[in-house]
Design goal:
Distance between the termini: 83 Å
Shape: flat
Structural class: mainly alpha
Strand content: under 5%
Helix content: over 70%
Number of strands: 0
Radius of gyration: 20 Å
Mean pLDDT: 93
CATH topology: Helix Hairpins
CATH architecture: Orthogonal Bundle
Order of helices and strands: HHHH
Low-confidence stretches: none
Number of domains: 1
Largest sheet: none
């Protein structure tokens, strides 16, 4: 009686053309749905609404509003990467680990930097208007 090693599942065939675009869109929407379950992301969405509303109310230019939107998208991307890091670290290192903690801390620091960039830009725009 021989015991064979299990074969890893085969990767699906690579999609091409529009099928690839539609699949990538589905994956992105699934990522957004997963990110929406994070309290930190929902807080950052609220912060973004406040910043955009404040800029619009103070008469910021369309360019300033567009730049703020870009910074908010950068914040969402940083939060997504931070969440991905946390998920992977929890998967590969369920026990307490100094390196795992440092990886999570670095992701959190990246998000904090982008939050500060958003706040700094908004404050600079408002200061230039007022």
């Amino acid at each position: 009686m021989s015991v064979e090693a299990p074969h890893p599942p085969l990767a699906p065939a690579k999609l091409r053309g529009l099928a690839h675009v539609f699949a990538a869109t589905r994956y992105s929407l699934a990522g957004l749905a997963r990110l929406a379950s994070e309290a930190a992301f929902r807080h950052e969405i609220a912060l973004g609404a406040v910043l955009l509303g404040t800029l619009a109310a103070t008469g910021a230019s369309r360019v300033d509003l567009l730049i703020q939107c870009g910074l908010l998208l950068l914040l969402a991307a940083a939060e997504a990467l931070n969440t991905a890091i946390e998920l992977i670290v929890d998967l590969v290192s369920p026990e307490v680990s100094v390196l795992a903690g440092q990886a999570k801390d670095l992701g959190s620091f990246a998000v904090s930097c982008v939050i500060l960039a958003n706040l700094g830009f908004a404050v600079a725009c408002i200061a230039a208007i007022v």
